[in-house]
Automatic annotation (TrEMBL), chain A:
It comes from the Bacteria. Pfam families: OpcA_G6PD_assem, OpcA_G6PD_C. InterPro entries: G6PDH_assembly_OpcA, OpcA_G6PD_C, OpcA_G6PD_N. Residues 170-299 form the Glucose-6-phosphate dehydrogenase assembly protein OpcA C-terminal domain. Transmembrane segments: none annotated. Residues 308-351 are annotated as: Disordered. PANTHER family: OXPP CYCLE PROTEIN OPCA-RELATED. Residues 328-351 have a biased composition (Low complexity). This is Glucose-6-phosphate dehydrogenase assembly protein OpcA. Residues 52-164 form the Glucose-6-phosphate dehydrogenase assembly protein OpcA N-terminal domain.
Amino acid sequence: MKIDLTNTTSSKINAGLIEARRAIGTPAVGMVLTLVIVTDEGNAYDALKAAGDASREHPSRTLVVIKRPGRTPRDRAKSRLDAEVRVGSDAGTGETVLLRLHGELANHAEAVVLPLLLPDAPVVVWWPEEAPEKPAEDPLGKLAQRRITDAASAEDPVGALGVRAGSYSPGDTDLAWTRITPWRSMLAAALDQRHSAISAAEVEGEPYNPSTELLGMWLADRLKVPVARKVSDGPGLTAVRLDTADGAISLDRADGALAELAMPGQPDRHVALKRRETAELIAEELRRLDPDEIYKSAVQFGVERLKFDRSQEDSATRPLPDEDEQKAAAPAKKSAATAKKAAGSAAGKSK
Amino acid sequence: MSTSSNPLRDPQDRRLPRIAGPSGLVIFGVTGDLSRKKLMPAVYDLANRGLLPPGFSLVGFARRDWEDEDFAQVVHDAVKEHARTPFREEVWQQLAEGFRFVPGEFDDDNSFEALRATIDELDKARGTGGNFAFYLSVPPKFFPKVVQQLKKHGLSQGQGDSWRRAVIEKPFGHDLASAQELNRVVHEVFEPVDVFRIDHYLGKETVQNILALRFANTMFEPIWNRSYVDHVQITMAEDIGIGGRAGYYDGIGAARDVIQNHLLQLLALTAMEEPGSFHPKALVTEKLKVLSAVELPEDLGRYTVRGQYAHAWQGGEEVLGYLEEEGIDPKSKTDTYAAIKLTINNRRWAGVPFYLRTGKRLGRRVTEIAVVFKRAPYLPFESGATEELGQNALVIRVQPDEGITVRFGSKVPGTSMEVRDVTMDFAYGESFTESSPEAYERLLLDVLLGDANLFPRHQEVELSWMILDPIEEHWEKHGRPAQYPAGTWGPVEADEMLARDGRSWRRP
């Protein structure tokens, strides 16, 4: 069921929601959270589709905030709120309200959203792109327990990680981090088995893929070893290698679906490691709403502390590595030890 | 092996799921229904959720002339038809490399040698590390043979720190003596901690939620005792008949098939005291305590009822009575319906009856626990205002439509004061994922992880038989099962049994 409300207010929208639910005969639903999606007209469809799919796992009230400040001074002077209320089969398993904020109102989204939040239930804000620099200080972000950004959608994805690290506040999370959960889980499972000490690591993925950097930083942060970043043609992340005295533990995924796990002294095995849809990522994010300390620690490790292997890469897109690291890049072996010490002590300080 | 030494693991990192270590699963009786409809799909679903270790291998053992490929095809069809999660080629590829099939009979030494060779080959080719669980999806009469063969061929003990586990399905005997004999046979070969008894009810989310409901909240536990609870009804109803299971069912009956395991487990979880922790030991201690406090009514004739479904129209189709079913002795005394009254002798529950009932060909398929509360001691309303008010109740719906219903009185809108029962509903499907994992997924994963929390221990099985045996003995000597038309809620005798106590069954 769909109700269109033009030039409306939050309280009229609330009344519309109740009316719509009565009309379809389910006056109460067990919705567990409010998901606020901040987007523009162009991305609203995709984001809403992902949220609808995720709502099968987490029935929620989805508020889509579409800002339309207007292009001309005349448009900007007129402010207006239009809403589209969707309940029932049109809205996944919860209810959805599309809010179009025209003119000056576009700068006061929180005033529209606040009365529409579900009582007592957690609030999650998701910026599919163009996330604010400091999500926790954004007027909408302030309303939320969980703030989801996506570094991969930024103009400078790797740079965005630095911004996230700088403005981190408990409850922040990034889809670039969510994307690597299966990788992290497989690597952790690999290290559950007996293995000799890890001396260095390497992550490989396409350029402009912040997940690769994040995985590298997580490994460096946890293992306290130097981690190199290599560039490949993708898709996405393509390989991780952990060097041990007995040989490398490696996880290779050339085709974006099936990976091969190799461990010293063990047969190579295939593991399914498919790149996931946005809906699955959002569903994972909504599963836990408490602060993700591990993400914090990984993202704040610092991209600049990874070693960039520059052999296949357009040099303009990356910051210059430190001089001694540059020398070490090709032979790598010896300087690994010194870099390890440096990484270890630095990581110790940051705790 | 220990996770604490793994730098990539951190208790704070709750995104990372528990993945079983290197391991494999051997299924005996792999051609059976359970294996195709539940086990194979559960293995695939686990793999799809990324919870199986790389290299996980599945070995089928049965009396078929199959190659590995034929077996893979059978699993493929079973997964396509019954798996909960969507079919993905890459997940299938990962799994299919680890499929092996060993043809053979249980008394054929060569087949078990072949099984051992297969396991050794998997350790080399797939890195399963010698860790194998043996799932005995075969009739209990074969258990002794299979476990003895496993022992004889050195399959029941792992090398070094690798493990071997046995998984067995109900029935765990048909009375105390046979249960003890079965435990003896299995424990002779496998250590008690390595034996996992599957009661698939315990793998259900709703059943696990009983513990969350009771011990994670403050508002239920204070009234969870004899001061507020009038009685408890635990129901497991099926709408199907015995189908093709005549051979198994006749002579066993509803009480042995369902009350002994499922219903007494539900009773234990509903009535037990708070465990000190969720360590399997602490949990089993509490369950044993409450099961050993269970007391039977003095007059078994008055407070137990059994029945047989009779020829009738059920939900739009004409169905046969139990005695008319193919393969059933027309003089059979086997119960297809059983209802019993139990009490629990402890401070919390003294005087609160627990009514347990189960049956086939009842009104609809439903399993629920209804905690019915006492009436308010005083009602300050005019007489007539509360005429339609029943007793407050909290109903845990185990299946289908998992959730919790609370029933309480509410004023009917209007000028007069009139109070009537209303219900408040919590549905799992509404507040959480539409498709919560199947019980078998959870249980198989727990077997591979070695987590015994959701499996009844042998002491529990034996205690349950001690509760049921006197009833079965009484039935053996006295009377015949009452007849009830298929599709109804059981024989009138069961209604009379509650009426004697001034109560009535809930219509589930």
